[in-house]
């Protein structure tokens, strides 16, 4: 079974210990809701699990190996910022993201994915001309474009309308049912639409 295992992680920011001795396992078929007050360290933990920043101590493995290309090819990380180039349009943003991630994709597939997210007609506008929710949808489109085993999602529901929240909930449920593993942060209560949810609570430490 595929597993992301973090052992005895610690993270210190501006002389404040956000967490220490934190061990967590994320397995296939599991959805973990990472919860906690503003500033508790949720984003910091997700970034460490995504290999984007280093823990101050501890170790992370994927399939019993240190994080490397085997892991990164199976990972989709979405930060709380969208990671879009605002001067490029949605098609260009997703095309370059796919290329970076080794995903072969046709222009027709990109148009179809944007249509599924109700962005028809907006595909070739610079992303800066889209609304906050529309920009979030472009970022989220990546979930459907890259075959992956792990999703690490920082506030994925932010700015989405109710229909798109439903779409994302279904996508999460399907992904986990098919053996994917998800850790996400959200200040909202998870509904039953996402399936079985486990919680991991970070407290704010002074
Ligand atoms: N690059 C950085 N440099 C200095 N301090 C940082 C940095 N990134 C985060 N911090 C600090 O670490 C703490 C935790 O931040 P983090 O973004 O992980 O919290 P969070 O739990 O995700 O909060 P929120 O719910 O508001 O998104 C905050 O006090 C923040 O100021």
Automatic annotation (TrEMBL):
GO terms for molecular function: ATP binding; ATP hydrolysis activity; transmembrane transporter activity. PROSITE patterns: ABC_TRANSPORTER_1 (PS00211), ABC_TRANSPORTER_2 (PS50893). Residues 4-206 form the ABC transporter domain. One of its GO terms (biological process) is cytochrome complex assembly. It comes from Salinimonas sediminis. InterPro entries: AAA+_ATPase, ABC_transporter-like_ATP-bd, ABC_transporter-like_CS, ABC_transptr_haem_export_CcmA, P-loop_NTPase. Keywords: ATP-binding, Cytochrome c-type biogenesis, Membrane, Nucleotide-binding, Translocase, Transport. Pfam families: ABC_tran. Gene3D superfamilies: P-loop containing nucleotide triphosphate hydrolases (3.40.50.300). This is Cytochrome c biogenesis heme-transporting ATPase CcmA. The gene is ccmA.
């Amino acid at each position: 079974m595929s597993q992301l295992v973090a052992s005895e992680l610690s993270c210190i920011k501006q002389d404040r210990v956000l967490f220490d001795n934190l061990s967590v396992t994320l397995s296939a078929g599991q959805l973990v809701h990472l919860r906690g007050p503003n500033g508790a360290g949720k984003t910091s933990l997700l970034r460490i699990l995504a290999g984007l920043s280093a823990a101050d101590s501890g170790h992370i493995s994927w399939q019993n190996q240190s994080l490397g290309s085997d892991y990164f090819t199976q990972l989709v990380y979405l930060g709380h910022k969208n990671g879009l180039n605002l001067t490029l349009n949605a098609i260009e943003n997703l095309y370059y993201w796919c290329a970076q991630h080794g995903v072969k994709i046709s222009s027709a597939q990109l148009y179809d994915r944007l249509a599924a997210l109700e962005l028809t007609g907006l595909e070739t506008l610079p992303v800066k001309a889209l609304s906050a929710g529309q920009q979030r949808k472009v970022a989220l489109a990546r979930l459907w474009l890259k075959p992956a085993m792990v999703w690490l999602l920082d506030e994925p529901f932010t700015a989405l309308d109710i229909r798109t929240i439903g779409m994302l909930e279904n996508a999460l449920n399907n992904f986990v049912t098919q053996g994917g593993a998800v850790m996400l942060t959200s200040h909202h209560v998870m509904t039953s639409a996402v399936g079985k949810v486990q919680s991991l609570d970070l407290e704010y430490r002074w």
